Amino acid sequence: MSSRIEQIIEEIEEYVDSCKYQPLSTTKIVVNKEELEERLRELRLKTPDEIKRYQKIISNKDAILADAQAKADAMIANAETKCQEMVSQHEVMQQAYAQANETINNANQQAQSILDAATQDSNNIRLSAISYTDEMLSNLDQIMSSTLDDAGAKYSNFINSLSSCRDVVVKNRSELAPQTAQAAVASVNEESLSLDDDEDDDEDFE
Question: What are residue 30's DSSP bridge partners?
Fold first, then answer.
C-alpha cells in the first residue's frame, strides 16, 4: 500500500502532465497556481508524519536486538541449568562436563546467529527507510525546481513583451515629432493672420 505522500506526488505528476503547453512552446506549460499550491501544502503537512513513521521503523531495531538478546540469554541460562543438573550427578561427572560444555557452546553459537540475523534485518530496514525518504524528497525538489523555472520564464516573457511595446510607442512618437512641429508652426501663423484681419476691420470702422 502506497503512502499518502506517494499518492500526492503521483497527483502532482498527473496534474503537470494534464496541463496545456504555452503557445509556441513544447516544454513550458500553464498551471493553476492555487491548485498546485494546495497539493504542495498537503505534501508539506504530510512529510513530517511520513518521516516520523520511518523513524519509528528504524527505532524498532533496538527492539529486535533486545528480543534477540533475551532469547540468547534464555538459551544460555537453560544450558547452564542443565550443566549444573548433570554435574550434580556424581556417577556421570565427566560426561556431564562434556555435555555441559557442548550445550553451552551450541547455545552461544545459536545466540550469536540470532544476534547477527537481527542486526542484519534492522540495518536493512534502516537503509530502506532512508532510501525511500531521500527518493521522496528528491521528487519533491524536482517538482519545486520545475515550478520555479516556469514562474521565472513567465515573468521574463512578460518583461520582454512590455519592453517591446514601449519601444513601439517611442518609435511612433519619434516619427510623429516633425509633423507635430509643423502643426504647431501652422497654428501660430493662423493666429497671426487672424490678428491682422481684426486690425484692418477696426481701421475700416473708424
Answer: 20
Query: pLDDT tens for residues 136-192?
Result: 778 777 787 777 787 777 778 888 888 888 888 888 877 777 776 676 666 766 666
CA–CA dist 62, 69 (Å, integer):
10
Q: Where are the domains of the chain?
A: 4-205
CATH value of 4-205 in 1.20.1260, 3.40.630, 1.10.10, 1.10.287: 1.10.287
Helices and strands in the chain: count of H runs, count of E runs: 3, 2
DSSP labels, 123-189: HHHHHHHHHHHHHHHHHHHHHHHHHHHHHHHHHHHHHHHHHHHHHHHHHHHHHHHHHHHHHHHHHHH
Type of residue at 85 = E
Burial annotation 65-89 (CB, 10 A radius, 16+ → b, else e): beebeeebeebbeebeebbeebeee
Question: Any idea what DSSP says for residue 31?
Answer: -
Strand partners, 21: 29
Report how far Cα 15 is from the mean position of its chain's Cα atoms.
16
Q: Is the pTM of this model over 0.70?
A: no
